[in-house]
């Protein structure tokens, strides 16, 4: 241990992990990962392009969707280098600073996505429960302020994480169980008391994503109550149909995110397979599926995408 105390770190890199036992078929495994990333980037870019160039889609609902698309693009770009680096080039090493930077952006973008999903729930809440004041409440300047507030909240919450990790000496095995860096896992490699990191990480998760998910749930309880009071069955279904795509995005985001957080902190060796599946699911699937779900469920967006593709 004396050698460790003489230097800040015992090793200069972390080793990322791909799919254990499948190293001989990494090139084939890389193909679906490449397809997922290309589809995610193209899909979210198309969403952004259509919303930006079509004035008809400059409504609050689509502005919030564009914020979600930017976040999904950021998540894809943040994780592409390390995941494809492993499967294409068997490059497992990542420097400590690069690892800290990656986990900062992953957690920041995850927090922002949670915030934007909450804003989208608020949009549906106002549209269904108070439609006459919809335009006066969700004005363009207010939308900008809400978006900036979400970004600032994410930065304020996530910024301490790299500094909390940088103060540690890392004297344990430097192998991570994912193809990317996250705070919950990196902190376990420290040869010091990680109580502060554990408490801060859990507290921020509860006060951001936990609070957001609770508010989203409450908003839909009120929405459901309001919709059930609508006399016409057809109007009831039409109102609920506008929420389907958002509900799909919420479930795709929160279920694996919460599951992975619980496994990281309270799981054991028997949960490695589930941890592996959720670890890839929560970063790869939402950016892939969100553009598809919204394109299918929003007839205005779908019509404009078809019009652009036919030109």
From TrEMBL:
GO biological process, one term: cellular response to lipid
Gene Ontology MF annotations: G protein-coupled receptor activity; olfactory receptor activity
Family matches, as InterPro entries: GPCR_Rhodpsn, GPCR_Rhodpsn_7TM, Olfact_rcpt, OR51/52/56-like
Gene name linked to the record: LOC135981632
Annotated Pfam families: 7tm_4
GO cellular component entries: plasma membrane
Membrane disposition: Multi-pass membrane protein
Ranges that cross the membrane: 25-51, 63-88, 100-122, 143-165, 199-224, 236-256, 276-296
Keywords (A to Z) from UniProt: Cell membrane, G-protein coupled receptor, Membrane, Olfaction, Receptor, Sensory transduction, Transducer, Transmembrane, Transmembrane helix
PANTHER family documented for this protein: OLFACTORY RECEPTOR 51G1, OLFACTORY RECEPTOR 56B1-RELATED
CDD domains reported in the protein's UniProt record: 7tmA_OR51-like (cd15222)
Subcellular location: Cell membrane; Membrane
Family label: Belongs to the G-protein coupled receptor 1 family.
Name the record gives this protein: Olfactory receptor
């Amino acid at each position: 241990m004396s050698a460790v105390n003489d230097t800040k770190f015992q090793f200069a890199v972390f080793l990322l992990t791909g799919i254990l036992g499948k190293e001989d078929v990494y090139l084939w495994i890389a193909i679906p990962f490449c397809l997922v990333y290309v589809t995610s980037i193209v899909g979210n870019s198309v969403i952004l392009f259509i919303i930006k160039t079509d004035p008809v889609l400059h409504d609050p609902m689509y502005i919030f969707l564009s914020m979600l698309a930017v976040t999904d693009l950021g998540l894809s770009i943040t994780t592409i280098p390390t995941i494809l680096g492993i499967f294409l080039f068997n490059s497992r090493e990542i420097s400590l600073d690069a690892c800290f930077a990656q986990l900062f952006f992953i957690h920041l973008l995850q927090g922002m996505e949670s915030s934007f999903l909450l804003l989208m729930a608020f949009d549906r809440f106002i549209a269904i429960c108070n439609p006459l004041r919809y335009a006066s409440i969700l004005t363009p300047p207010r939308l900008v302020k809400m978006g900036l507030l979400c970004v600032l909240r994410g930065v304020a919450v996530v910024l301490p994480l790299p500094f909390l990790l940088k103060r540690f000496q890392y004297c344990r095995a430097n192998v991570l169980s994912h193809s990317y860096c996250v705070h919950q896992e990196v902190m376990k490699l420290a040869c010091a008391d990680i109580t502060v990191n554990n408490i801060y990480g859990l507290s921020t998760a509860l006060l951001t994503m936990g609070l957001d998910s609770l508010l989203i749930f409450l908003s839909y309880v009120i929405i459901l109550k309001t919709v059930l009071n609508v006399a016409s069955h057809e109007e009831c279904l039409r109102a609920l149909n506008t929420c389907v795509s958002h509900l799909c995005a919420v479930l795709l985001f929160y279920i694996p995110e919460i599951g992975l957080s619980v496994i990281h902190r309270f799981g054991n060796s028997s949960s490695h397979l589930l941890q592996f599946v959720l670890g890839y699911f929560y970063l790869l699937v939402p950016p892939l599926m969100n553009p598809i779900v919204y394109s299918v469920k929003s007839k205005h967006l779908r019509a404009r995408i078809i019009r652009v593709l036919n030109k």
